[in-house]
Amino acid sequence: xxxxxxxxxxxxxxxxxxxxxxxxxxxxxxxxxxxxxxxxxxxxxxxxxxxxxxxxxxxxxxxxxxxxxxxxxxxxxxxxxxxxxxxxxxxxxxxxxxxxxxxxxxxxxxxxxxxxxxxxxxxxxxxxxxxxxxxxxxxxxxxxxxxxxxxxxxxxxxxxxxxxxxxxxxxxxxxxxxxxxxxxxxxxxxxxx
Length: 193
Hints:
By secondary structure, the chain is mostly helical. It is 75% helix and 0% strand. Helix 6 packs antiparallel against helix 8 and helix 8 (127-153) packs across helix 9 (160-185). The chain is globular and about 65 Å long. 27% of the residues are buried.
């Protein structure tokens, strides 16, 4: 029993020694850039999909990618996806796409809140369960989005647009999850500084 405690203590000391050398300026900049990868990726996607290019379904794809990203990073690296950053991303989407101000902010904050409150459970589940839970959340938030836009426009809006967004979000999540997992372990990992 004592040998097990000593071996676990030595592993802990190798990973996290008591005294660490201070980081150089370049290492601090590197750590900040790695910390900002999730928000930077979302900002890049928002700016690319907000440019009036002839990309079919670009608005639906934009929201699907951002919701998937907020969900993933809120579970696996919540410090890199703070609530104020999620609010800013939603505000930017609403502003650049001339949608009803506050709807996308509300949707993203719901996804963020659901993921951040259940992140300890979700991080232990296998991919299929995490994807299933994401699918349920996506179905719920796109229904809420349809309801809010219908209420704000004072008429029932066509559901097809929101179904298209939901299918994009659920369908693209596995691909985005692979990419985000790679980034989480490599370029977005502040521990590699």
